[in-house]
Task: structure prediction
Amino acid sequence: MARNSAIASESFEEILTWLNPDREIAGELYVQLRLDLTKIFVWRKCSDPEGLTDEVFDRVARKVHVVRQSYEGDPRLYFCAVANNLAKETFKKIGTHIPLEGVDLPNHPEKSADDEDIEDCLQRCLRKLSRETRHLILAYYAKEKQAKIDHRQKLAQSLDIPIETLRVKVYRIRESLEGCIGRCFERKAQQKGNGSHEH
Amino acid sequence: MKHEVLSDALLREFLLGKLDDEDRLQIESLFLVHREARQRVLNAEQDLIEDYLENSLTPPDREIFLSMYARTAAQRQCLRITKSIKDEGMAEATLSQTGPAIIAGRSEFLERLLFRPVLLPPISVTITIAIVITLVWLNSRMRQERFVVDQELTRLNAPASLREVSPEMVSLDLSPLTFRSAVRQVQLKTGTGVQIVELRLPWFQKEHPSAYVAEIRRVDDDESFTIRNVPLESDGRYATRIRLPAQILRPGQYEIRLSVIAANGETDLAEEYQFTVAG
Result:
């Protein structure tokens, strides 16, 4: 369902107002809702989570003018119900069986060109972080398996914050870092594409 | 279902699709509307991803995991990125443990050098020449031009200048990157007569710091400009404005990063915007 959704601006405004009369809060809720619905479609093993999220917003946009007059409760739950119906419809149409052979991440010691690009982007994006932030995220991932539990507890103690706060902090840094790396990687791919066209 | 019952074990079952429809829908609803529940689910998801990357999942769970997180090329790329961050953390930790050994090695090298004074004059001359060349390069024309551009940016974005409206100015409204699937990419056409480009950047976040640092970066070659102390304005809706001399914009895609200046002087990325300059 790859497509580029563009909701009519009146409907978009009405969705924002429905989410919250304060435009700033509505903007935040809108962004959050998009991300959260996409996650829900991932957890439901849907094949195009972003496309389905667009479809949910399209469907709500078509009805928002009528629905918001009578709907009581948190409007996000209405989006949740629409997403639930859409996921069911999708599974009815295409079924749920997905062959998984060969989808595991490669675990070869040799690095592919993509891995090298990601590595390069990671270094670039790490340099954009403040020194403390960079240190924090790298320290968080310094250990794995059982050792990481003690290590992260000590890290939280050294920062004088609860472990849950540390997790949230790192989650946000990692999200922003992953976004930066993803965009950098896309640009590299585009540049390579342009280069091969020129040849 | 109350958010207090969301144990790690229950959330692991939810994430692996092992709950019935009713329980799953309840957790999804909590995830959407309850802040604490949302964070718990995200933490559980993080643990799941880490367990996968550390090869700690059972084979059936691994297969379920892959059916959710490694289905498309984009998802697999996301996992590779997460893995790269994790690997970097491990490598950094290893490096800091072996750091003293490297420093010790360097000291040995310096000691050997001091015991061979005959090598010192040619090395000193080489270093001096390198420093002179670097200084000449630093004073080159490029830096002068850059200085002029920086001065112009400071002047255009001073509060007094921002109040002026020039007939040679075009204005563009951008949207935060997080809004991009609802709003189309903005394209700028700088025709003749356009001297200044004003970019209006809406601000939807809760915090309203008084000033930001704006970094404008051309994606293709990483050329970037920084404007400090960009004020946040409000006429019912919060937004910032930045003005750029049209001459510095070349065809291609640009990114704007607004960062908040923390009390300790460090900057933290707050919002990103994009626009394209037409060829």
Chain A touches chain B through 76 residues (CB under 8 Å).
